[in-house]
Design a protein that fits this description.
- Chain A: It is found in: Cell inner membrane.
- Chain A: Belongs to the ABC transporter superfamily.
- The complex is a heterodimer.
- By secondary structure, chain A is α/β, with parallel strands linked by helices.
- Helices cover 28% and strands 24% of the residues of chain A.
- In chain A, the strands form two sheets. Chain A has an eight-stranded mixed beta sheet with strand order 6-7-8-3-9-10-12-11, sandwiched between helices. Chain A has a four-stranded antiparallel beta sheet with strand order 2-1-4-5.
- In chain A, strand 9 and strand 10 form a beta hairpin.
- Helices cover 32% and strands 19% of the residues of chain B.
- An eight-stranded mixed beta sheet of chain B has the order 6-7-8-3-9-10-12-11, with helices on both faces.
- Chain B is globular.
- Chain B has twelve helices and twelve strands.
- In chain B, helix 3 crosses helix 4.
- Classes of the chains: A alpha/beta, B alpha/beta.
- Bound molecules: adenosine-5'-triphosphate (2 copies), iron/sulfur cluster and magnesium ion (MG) (2 copies).
- The site of one magnesium ion (MG) has 2 residues of chain A, from helix 1.
Amino acid sequence: MTTAVLSVRGLSKTYVQRKGLLGAVKETHAVRNVSFDVGRGEILGLVGESGSGKTTVGRMAMRLLEATSGQVVLSGTDITAYSQARLRAVRRKMQLIFQDPSASLNPRQTIGRILRTPLALRGIDNDQEILETLALVGMSPDSLNRTPAMFSGGQRQRLSIARALLMQPELLVADEAVSALDVCVQAQVVNLFVDLRDRLGLSVLFIGHDLAVVGVVSDRVGVMYRGVLVEVARTADLFRRPRHPYTAQLLAAAPRHGAPLPPEPAPSQVSRAAEGCVFASLCAHMTSECLSRQPDLSEVGPAHQSACLRTELHLGGV
Amino acid sequence: MTRKTTSPLLSVRNLTVSFGGPDIVDDLSFEIGHGEIVALVGESGSGKSVGSLAVMGLLENADIRGSACLAGAQGAGGDTELVGLPARQMRALRGRRISMIFQDPLSSLDPLQTIGSQIREVLRAHTPLKGPALRARAIALLEQVGIVDPEGCLTLLPQRLSGGMRQRVMIALAIAAEPDLLFADEPTTALDVTVQAQVLRLLKGLRDQTGMAMVFITHNLAVASAIADRVIVLYAGQVVEDAPAEVFFRRPAMPYSRALLSAAPRLEAVMGGYGHLEAPRGQVPSPGQRGTACRFASRCDDVREGVCLAAMPPLVSIAGPGETNHTVRCARWEELAP
Ligand SMILES: Nc1ncnc2c1ncn2[C@@H]1O[C@H](COP(=O)(O)OP(=O)(O)OP(=O)(O)O)[C@@H](O)[C@H]1O
Ligand SMILES: Nc1ncnc2c1ncn2[C@@H]1O[C@H](COP(=O)(O)OP(=O)(O)OP(=O)(O)O)[C@@H](O)[C@H]1O
Ligand code: SF4
Ligand SMILES: [Mg+2]
Ligand SMILES: [Mg+2]
């Protein structure tokens, strides 16, 4: 069996907030018991509603955020308990790309200076690899003398991807990395990810909310709802034959070319039970058992897992 | 004299904007009908935001030429020229008759004021509401945009809200006074598809109920197709196509429009990691380097030297008799028509 590049097991994150000095304590379960693998040369998409915990999962996987519980395994090595000092050595292998490229490009430095920093970390001091990487992301060599402000948003995003690639990562976490790009540049960047996966065996955790984009780029897709990973499957299986009612609702809400707006989903029938399935209050397939516990992810088909008690359900996809 | 009901609500003529350098928005002309939803699409940097901000009188240090004429309020008559309108009069129109949802929701909310006080301020300025009625309207607005706990939300500062919630508050502020015309600049980009669908239904519902017209700026063509009556495509500061939505998505006439549509990923075409999107080669020419020929020529698969590079193709009407207006800027549109 080949080891996964990234393997997370039972990851949880709970935020505790106190209202005022003596006020009630409020717990936010941002991520609950999430487990998945990203294989070598695989792109795993992660979708779900805003606030469902996608970014929190990505940051915990990179150990940029401490998990409340759970394990993070990078290429077979458990890094959950690594100190910051030990992490520094492995951090180069995982790179994060944000929605806003400005976050990773210092505005006062030239692109040349920005791109030479990762190479210096690897003890290399010629520009050969930089020029190759620039070509790979479709940027010309004269970019090197310019500062980030002289590029459009899409070009800046490609430069921040180039910077990440120069670290020679095994894993990229792309958090809404193409969301702000126009369709032409978005297409270029999406093609680039697929190309790098094929040519360099790069692994990517691709977080996004445009289902069409995620559907194009990902080998498999996971769906999150209120901190829970509710379904994971090969992309086509998930989109065409979803098994979790939330996935089906999400797909139905997505806008389509030339199609009218989808109708409003029926309003909630029951109030949310703290114990039960996270989706119970909005679920058209809910039974009384659904209110008693949160189902675990379980195998419902080949490479297809769903966290729904009603494992017999086959729902309509796109 | 009978009232002409077909006259547009907003008529933009030869609008040109520069910031001391080359023209950013170049000779822009289009019309928005009463209650019409127009999607404004086009590559990043094509001038969608700058053009809208110019009409709203919100650009500083810009040189604005041309005309943007807003028809009088229902029954009131009298058109208003927005270009060059004194700042005081512009402020009186803004929020009440024309309003805008900005591309960046963080920078347009006051970080030091609660959501409640920001909504009340807008309502006080533009409606006669007071006291409990004012509060009730503020709550109703937040409910309308899908905020789950509107009363709690009133007491919060913007930084306590997630990106998606901030975006919804911005929408509530912009529609508070039921304007006649709303510029919505990427209003659903930060939202997940469920909330996005909810906001699109809300905006369309407002149009149906109040007759509010809308300029909807977006990169997402599926969203444009879900909401728009008409689509206007900008490229390098110019209108290159202006068509009824249903015609645009079926048979776009300008090569750049076709390139946009084939670059856009489609939900129906899930490719499971084997996707390859058709990205047009090259980049949009920057404002100083647009030249005098067709601005798309360097990227166009259909370019013909003598025809396309000779001069700037004019924006011509290609609608047949009795058809809704459809204009395109391409020297070869007739030959290339499917
Ligand atoms: N520092 C914090 N304190 C308390 N709650 C937090 C904190 N950071 C995040 N949260 C909460 O954790 C949950 C998950 O947030 P996260 O940013 O991971 O969502 P997301 O899926 O990335 O959403 P989006 O699609 O909007 O980016 C949200 O409910 C958020 O409000
Ligand atoms: N204040 C300014 N001074 C000088 N140039 C500006 C200014 N504001 C915008 N520009 C330039 O004007 C051009 C058009 O910008 P605009 O923001 O209208 O693009 P857009 O079509 O809205 O793009 P996007 O889809 O990325 O939002 C860009 O090249 C931009 O760099
Ligand atoms: S005028 Fe020529 S170059 Fe420009 S879009 Fe038409 S065919 Fe292409
Ligand atoms: Mg996020
Ligand atoms: Mg813009």
